[in-house]
Design brief:
Structural class: alpha/beta
Radius of gyration: 14 Å
Mean pLDDT: 87
Low-confidence stretches: 1-14
Helix content: 25-40%
Largest sheet: 6 strands, mixed
Distance between the termini: 13 Å
Order of helices and strands: EEEHEHEHEH
C-alpha cells in the first residue's frame, strides 16, 4: 500500500514524502539530514507525530560530510535512532566514497536490518519491513 503523507508537519519540513509498508520515504531534492539536530527533528516528527519508526533517505537528502566517519556525526545519529527504536535506510551510490573504514562500516551495518546502505529502494524497503 502506498499513500501520500498529508502536508501538515509540526517539526520536520519536508516537501514530498511517501509512505510504503509503514516506512517514511523522503522524496525531496534537498539535504534534510546534516547533523544530530536534524536527526532529532526527524524523530520528533515522524516518530512522535506520525507514529512511524522507519525512514528511507536518498543520498541526495544527506550531507555527505556525515559519511566521513572521523567526525563521528553519523555514529551519533545512528545511536540516537537506536535509542528511539528507529531504523533507517540510505539509498544511493556509495561506491563514490573511497574510505575503507566507511566501506567496512557499511558492510557491517548491512548484516542487520536496523540500518541499511544500498543502491536499491526496493531492497531497502524489504530489509526494513
Amino acid at each position: 500500500m502506498v499513500r501520500n503523507l498529508p502536508r501538515r508537519r509540526k517539526y520536520f519540513a519536508v516537501g514530498d514524502v511517501m509512505i510504503k509498508n509503514n516506512i517514511y520515504i523522503v522524496e525531496e531534492d534537498k539535504i534534510i539530514l546534516s547533523n544530530l539536530s536534524d536527526a532529532l527533528d526527524i524523530i520528533a516528527d515522524i516518530g512522535f507525530s506520525q507514529g512511524l519508526n522507519k525512514i528511507v533517505f536518498y543520498l541526495k537528502n544527506v550531507n555527505e560530510e556525515l559519511f566521513d566517519l572521523k567526525n563521528g556525526i553519523l555514529g551519533e545519529i545512528l545511536q540516537k535512532y537506536t535509542n528511539y527504536n528507529f531504523s533507517a535506510a540510505f539509498v544511493g551510490d556509495f561506491t563514490k566514497f573511497k574510505s575503507k573504514s566507511l566501506n567496512d562500516f557499511i558492510f557491517e551495518m548491512n548484516k542487520g536490518n536496523r540500518f541499511i546502505f544500498t543502491d536499491n529502494l526496493d531492497f531497502a524497503i524489504e530489509k526494513l519491513s
